[in-house]
Amino acid sequence: MDPGWLALALTPGVGPRRYLRARREHESPLVAARALGERVAQAYREVLASGEAERVLKRARELGVRVLLPLEEGYPEGLMHLADPPAPLFVRGEVPEKEAAVAIVGTRRASPWALAFARDLARALAEAGVYVVSGLARGIDAAAHKGALEAGGKTLAVLGSAIDRVYPPEHRPLAERISLVSEFPFGTGPRPEHFPRRNRVIAALVRAVVVVEAPERSGALITARHALELGREVLAVPGRPGDEKSRGANRLIQDGAFPLLEPEDALRYLGLERRAKGEKPPPHLAPLYEALKALGLALPEDLAARTGKRPEEVLAALLELELLGLAEATPGGRYRAR
């Protein structure tokens, strides 16, 4: 990457729209900065002289993060559909092609049924080869990421903070297992105004947005609105009439969003099929899996007593079974075979 163009993107007063226009119209960052006016040109020279672009690139290398700019190789094509594609964009991991990705979004204060639906839907999509995208928030977002992982699939979180300031903090272990995208500079914490911007990126990166449960004033509806503006598909899960948590999703259906009564509805609507997968666990997990099937619904300590394994071994094995889609955690800390 040319540090000169990155310095222009980091220059105060430029912003994504002005950067994109300047990049399209000029061959060098210095000429582009001058074309944006003397005030911007002076600010650009100061950023360039400060070495800020080099520091950002050094920090990115330390974190294993790529720094991408619009119109450069590797920049996600879906984001170029935005009037203000992020400049720069920070990426850790893989960004899927738009046609291979579906977003699952919804309220942070989700009902148990909605969390279960989001998780099952993410599993179904992942088993069909879809890259599941969400925002790493509490509630529906986290359930979607976990469901995709449980199916052995891939999932991406678009953050409302910098990649090195994962929010909420309790989701840092989850963040370490998935791909991350952010348009916010290193060190930037979460702020209320960041999340609507985050939501437009989610919508731009995918072929469809699924709203599982959302009240009328919800970031998930902002994502759905951006999706409609960008020509993406919008699907929603109906909730109980009169339920405040479902009013937004119900309204989307009333306005024409495709209703999902079960995860397979999404697969059929999007023309997808689950990939066939083996029903048998690997040999080292087989005894615990058979014990789980025999018990039906069991606590980890029940499985430890039945198999003679230490509790920590049981928990590790249960996690493996979950990731293989062969076990499922239920409320109350119990597990069951799938």
Write the layout of secondary structure elements.
Blueprint: H1 3-9, H2 15-25, H3 29-35, H4 38-50, H5 52-63, E1 66-68, E2 89-92, E3 101-105, H6 112-127, E4 131-134, H7 140-150, E5 155-158, H8 172-175, E6 179-182, H9 194-205, E7 208-211, H10 219-229, E8 233-236, H11 247-254, E9 258-259, H12 263-270, H13 286-295, H14 300-307, H15 311-323, E10 327-330, E11 334-337
Parallel strand pairs: 3-4, 3-7, 4-5, 5-6, 7-8, 8-9
Antiparallel strand pairs: 1-2, 2-6, 10-11
Helix pairs in contact: 1-3, 1-5, 3-4, 6-7, 6-12, 9-10, 14-15
How would you briefly describe this protein structure?
The chain has helices at 3-9, 15-25, 29-35, 38-50, 52-63, 112-127, 140-150, 172-175, 194-205, 219-229, 247-254, 263-270, 286-295, 300-307, 311-323; strands at residues 66-68, 89-92, 101-105, 131-134, 155-158, 179-182, 208-211, 233-236, 258-259, 327-330, 334-337.
Describe the overall structure.
By secondary structure, the chain is an alpha/beta fold. The protein folds into three domains: 3-92, no CATH class; 98-270, Rossmann fold, CATH 3.40.50.450; 283-337, Arc Repressor Mutant, subunit A, CATH 1.10.10. The chain is built from 15 helices and eleven strands. The protein has helices at residues 3-9, 15-25, 29-35, 38-50, 52-63, 112-127, 140-150, 172-175, 194-205, 219-229, 247-254, 263-270, 286-295, 300-307, 311-323; strands spanning 66-68, 89-92, 101-105, 131-134, 155-158, 179-182, 208-211, 233-236, 258-259, 327-330, 334-337. The strands form two sheets. It has a nine-stranded mixed beta sheet, with helices on both faces. The protein has a two-stranded antiparallel ribbon with strand order 10-11. Helix 3 (29-35) runs antiparallel to helix 4, helix 9 (194-205) packs across helix 10 and helix 14 (300-307) packs across helix 15. The longest helix has 16 residues, at 112-127. The radius of gyration is 22 Å and the shape is globular. The termini are far apart.
